[in-house]
Amino acid sequence: MNEIQTKRISKFLSLILRHQPETIQLRLDENGWAEVDELITKSAKGRMHFSFEELEEVVETNNKKRFAFNEDKTRIRASQGHSIDVDLALKAVQPPDFLYHGTAESNISSILDNGIEKRARQHVHLSADKETATKVGMRHGKPVILTIRTKEMHEDGILFYLSANKVWLTDFVDAKYISK
């Protein structure tokens, strides 16, 4: 499968598994899982054709590990980033002392005034390294990397989760924990 086809399927899966399963009348369970056979069949009816082998390749080669299969590969879900209500059944874990948030320069004054909000997503996304945060920030304009004092947040009782693809998640980052 070529890179263009892989990217096209990945973008489609992001739409369907994270935001709009109803586009192809796909049923997700409360934890965001979809039956693989149903996904392939309903995608084809919606004119997005791919085989199980192509789906498997997209899941395995996605550099951000956006999607995951269950153990026997009969179900699939997005690892994080949902705008629809799903319970990923993540356990709260202790974060490292610092995490990073990449954003566009145009968002800085609002963030420093109001903190980082999850907005349409279920969680605020944080990165373990500045390189990843920079890539995230570049998608929105000139990137700025913010350092989040997550040890302090955790000590103050704020919960953190680590998604299957190693994105750190929390509900809100108050401006008092942010350093530019």
From TrEMBL:
Gene3D superfamilies: 3.20.170.30, RNA 2'-phosphotransferase, Tpt1/KptA family, N-terminal domain. It comes from the Bacteria. InterPro entries: Ptrans_KptA/Tpt1, RNA_2'-PTrans_C, RNA_2'-PTrans_KptA, RNA_2'-PTrans_N. The keyword Transferase applies. Keywords: NAD, Transferase. Pfam families: PTS_2-RNA. One of its GO terms (molecular function) is transferase activity. The keyword Flavoprotein does not apply. It is an enzyme of class 2 (transferase). Its EC number is 2.7.1.-. Belongs to the KptA/TPT1 family. Removes the 2'-phosphate from RNA via an intermediate in which the phosphate is ADP-ribosylated by NAD followed by a presumed transesterification to release the RNA and generate ADP-ribose 1''-2''-cyclic phosphate (APPR>P). May function as an ADP-ribosylase. HAMAP family: KptA. This is Probable RNA 2'-phosphotransferase. It comes from Chryseobacterium herbae. The lineage of its organism: Bacteria, Pseudomonadati, Bacteroidota, Flavobacteriia, Flavobacteriales.
